[in-house]
Amino acid sequence: MATKELTGTTIEQAIKDNDIVLVDFWAEWCGPCKRFGPVFEASSDQHPEILHAKVDTEAEQALAGELGITSIPTLMAFREGILVFNQAGALPGPALQQVVDAVKGLDMDDVRAQIQAQHAEHSHQS
């Protein structure tokens, strides 16, 4: 499965419609992004059940700003609509595979419980 270009208008639906979404934030002028591209493509072939998406930060500056992208490449992983991984820097293949395995292995009930606990904590502090 090839990677899919996402935009500010399509990213939300893509994250809703897929269990796991990996998003590569990149730009044409970025050397490390170009090196990470083939690694990301290879992962999309190995894991057709995971949506591998790319966001061109030049074309989608508002979206990149909204998501707080400060350096590229940045890889984000969403599972069941929740951001579970966010890291800048080009990953080598084995490191990307570790991220995929970790995201697949998450206990999402546990993740949601942690998020609820954090929200409860914040609402007590305000």
Automatic annotation (TrEMBL):
GO molecular function, one term: protein-disulfide reductase activity
Family matches, as PROSITE patterns: THIOREDOXIN_1, THIOREDOXIN_2
Keywords: Disulfide bond
Ranges for domain Thioredoxin: 1-105
Protein name: Thioredoxin
GO CC terms of this entry: cytosol
Gene3D superfamilies per record: Glutaredoxin (3.40.30.10)
Originating species: Cellulomonas aerilata
UniProt xrefs under PANTHER family: GEO12009P1, THIOREDOXIN 2
Record InterPro entries: Thioredoxin-like_sf (IPR036249), Thioredoxin_CS (IPR017937), Thioredoxin_domain (IPR013766)
